[in-house]
Automatic annotation (TrEMBL):
Gene3D superfamilies: 3.30.530.20. It comes from marine metagenome. InterPro entries: CO_DH_gsu, START-like_dom_sf. Residues 79-98 are annotated as: Disordered. Transmembrane segments: none annotated. This is Carbon monoxide dehydrogenase subunit G. PANTHER family: BLL0334 PROTEIN.
Length: 98
């Protein structure tokens, strides 16, 4: 099964300011769908707590999020893998600044 999530934000800020902000785990956890928290784990790696709800089914996942293909100040890609009581999940995404 695949789910596509997409969000777009319009900010009255310089691109470099936004780039700096999306390096902050607290800010990043607020813009990533279903992400409840991010804690630094290493270079460009984080422990992520993610809650997923699809219809009547919900689950919490203890996950690892890794940023890669960083292209300052244009954005980066990320992948996430996690396990929960009801199974496992994995996904990938991209943050683009323009």
């Amino acid at each position: 099964m695949a789910i596509r999530l997409e969000k777009e934000y319009h900010l009255d800020l310089e691109q470099r300011e936004v780039w700096s902000a999306i390096q902050d785990p607290e800010i990043l956890s607020e813009i990533l769908p279903n992400c409840k928290s991010l804690e630094p784990k290493g270079d460009n790696q984080f422990t992520a707590n993610i809650d997923v709800k699809i219809g009547p089914i919900s689950s919490k996942f203890q996950s690892t999020l890794e940023m890669f293909d960083l292209k300052e100040p244009d954005g980066y890609k990320f992948r996430v893998q996690g396990n929960g009581k009801k199974g496992s999940m994995n996904g990938q995404g991209e943050i683009k600044l323009f």
